[in-house]
Design goal:
alpha+beta; Alpha-Beta Plaits; four-stranded antiparallel sheet; elongated
């Protein structure tokens, strides 16, 4: 069993409220939380309007499978979220 922790930090320039922030981040729980091998949560910047941090825990049978899922998540986030990715951290356990 292989586990990765993927943490992404986003900048939301011009975001004026927490409601707008939720709309711009586009329901990440619903999009990724239904996958059995992925858990997701907003892990930082909850009270800030202009920033957000999200952490994904990915589990798989091989490191290659987990790395592939991490890459797919990163690519999808860059397409669907109305925010700039400022930092990406991957940690394998």
């Amino acid at each position: 069993m292989h586990i990765a922790i993927l943490t992404l930090t986003f900048s939301l320039p011009g975001c004026g409220s927490l409601k707008e922030k939720r709309q711009r981040m586009g329901g990440l729980h619903a999009r990724f939380g239904n996958t059995p091998s992925v858990a997701v949560c907003e892990s930082g910047g909850r009270a800030r309007h202009d920033a957000s941090e999200w952490t994904f825990v990915i589990v798989g049978l091989s490191k290659r499978e987990v790395e592939s899922q991490c890459s797919q998540i990163e690519e999808k986030l860059e397409r669907i979220v109305d925010a700039r990715v400022m930092n990406v951290e991957r940690e394998f356990i």
